[in-house]
Design brief:
Layout lengths: L1 E8 L3 E6 L9 E6 L3 H14 L4 E6 L3 E3 L2 E3 L3 E7 L4 E8 L6 H12 L4 E8 L6 H6 L2 H5 L4 E5 L11 E3 L7 E8 L3 E8 L3 E13 L2 E5 L2 E2 H9 L15 E4 L8 E3 L1 E5 L4 E4 L8 E6 L2 H18 L7 E8 H7 L4 H11 L3 E8 L1 E5 L6 E4 L3 E8 L1
Helix pairs in contact: 6-8
Length: 381
């Protein structure tokens, strides 16, 4: 497996920063951007000219990751030339209100075959119900085939997100990429590092990803009570105080949910993933050192199982926009930590997302995560 990486610049086009490949033999190109859609479309055109036979996919972001750098308002790419393995890509377009679980099932059906090692997914970050989407991958989870990826971002604007799949970027789109081959290794690691605080409460009224009541009381009212002065900065301050949820006594399988918006009239809160009625919920907050440590743990999990003899490895590093906002200028620490753990022969690219897709550390079931560092690493023998 050979890998090259670079950036796209307005005045120079594609600029190679590391590695060499045979452009005509490149199998897969991933690119990420936080520029406008027109710029991303121009970058796609240049990538298609440079890599005519590749499957090309990407998405808009809350910031790009390449090597050990975090960039904004840029376009970054990585090109992979497999020697033995191969990829297959499938695209699902949808409209508001579509059955997102069915989208996941359609991707599963299109990609599932005997030598499948893993599936990487990029999705619109605002129009899709991420929890329903990942539930469509249950058949793969039961076969222990990891599904990883992320939801597209839009910096911290939360207005519109874009996905590219062998074409110019579009909204309302999900792309799934299957990785195949007996000599291909596909692994993952994910941790969040956030801590719970305050009382545990029961979700008494919810619908999908909208939370109405906790313990029979208006959810937003309770949320404001425990935020104190930070409640004056809603909805922006909500990114700093996510919600932990879990089913019954399975607190060790908790998921983190990011608040996207609040409705003062309904006293409700809308989250990036579902909040099932009957689940237990508890507020969370983050300490920067603990969050950075969690990023390192995600990298350690991947590095402990990826092929040690592989000369070239590629890691897709996806972290949450909420982590970036909390850490501010210290955000580079989590990428630096990941880079040091994975090592120089591991080529890194990624982005800050509106949701992370990865198997749960305990159940292996594909889940939508928030506030999490999720790393996907693949290599060939």
């Amino acid at each position: 497996m050979r890998i090259s990486q670079g950036r796209w610049r307005n005045d120079q086009g594609l600029v190679l920063t590391e590695g060499e490949v045979n452009s005509s033999k490149v199998t897969l190109v991933l690119y990420f951007w936080s520029t406008d859609q027109e710029t991303a479309s121009t970058a796609y055109d240049d990538l298609r000219k440079q890599f005519p036979n590749a499957q090309i996919a990407g998405c808009s972001t809350g910031g790009e990751i390449i090597h050990d750098l975090i960039l904004n308002d840029s376009v970054v790419y990585t090109a992979i030339e497999f020697e033995k393995g191969y990829v297959k890509m499938v695209v699902e377009n949808f409209i508001q209100g579509s059955d997102c679980c069915q989208i996941g099932q359609n991707i599963t059906k299109a990609l599932d075959q005997e030598d499948l090692k893993g599936v990487f997914v990029l999705s619109d970050g605002l129009s899709v119900n991420g929890s329903e989407l990942v539930s469509g991958f249950d058949a793969l989870s039961k076969r222990k085939i990891p599904v990883t990826g992320g939801l597209a971002g839009d910096q911290d604007r939360f207005k519109q997100t874009w996905v590219s799949a062998n074409g110019h970027p579009l909204s309302h789109q999900v792309v799934g990429i299957g990785f195949y081959g007996k000599d291909l290794s596909y692994h993952h690691g994910s941790y969040d590092g956030w801590e719970v605080f305050g009382p545990e409460r029961i979700v008494t009224t919810s619908q999908g990803n909208v939370l109405y009541e906790l313990d029979g009381k208006p959810a937003l009212e309770l949320y404001k009570k425990y935020l104190g002065p930070e409640a004056d900065h809603l909805p922006a301050s909500a990114l700093l105080f996510p919600l932990a949820i879990w089913d019954g006594d399975k607190k060790d399988e908790m998921l983190v949910r990011t608040i996207l918006s609040v409705n003062e009239e309904e006293q409700s809160m809308t989250f990036a993933g579902d909040i099932p009625t009957g689940y237990t919920a508890q507020l969370m907050w983050g300490k920067i050192d603990a969050i950075v440590e969690a990023a390192g743990r995600a990298a350690e999990k991947v590095s402990s199982i990826v092929l040690p003899e592989a000369q070239n490895q590629c890691s897709i590093v996806i972290s949450c926009i909420g982590r970036k906002i909390l850490m501010g200028q210290r955000v580079i620490q989590e990428v630096d930590t990941v880079s040091k753990v994975l090592g120089a022969k591991n080529k890194k690219i990624g982005f800050y997302s509106y949701g992370e897709i990865a198997p749960h550390a305990l159940s292996d079931k594909c889940e939508l995560h928030n506030k999490t560092m999720a790393i996907t690493t693949f290599a060939e023998k």
